[in-house]
Design brief:
Structural class: alpha+beta
Number of strands: 2
Strand order of the largest sheet: 1-2
Length: 55
């Protein structure tokens, strides 16, 4: 989404997973129904400041 490729000191990617639709709102807990985001983008997504669309 951002194009950033953040890596920690050990060389591993720094990502968080975000549910596209919250499990509490009858969303799936499947890994295929999530997004890999940076911490900042995850925070923004959870608060509705950014979103995804079919197009």
């Amino acid at each position: 989404m951002s194009g950033l490729m953040l890596r920690n000191g050990g060389g591993r990617p720094e990502v968080q997973t975000a549910h596209i639709r919250p499990v509490e709102s009858r969303g799936s807990d499947s890994v295929r129904k999530g997004l890999a985001l940076s911490g900042t983008l995850h925070w923004m997504f959870d608060r509705g400041l950014i979103s995804v669309a079919d197009d």
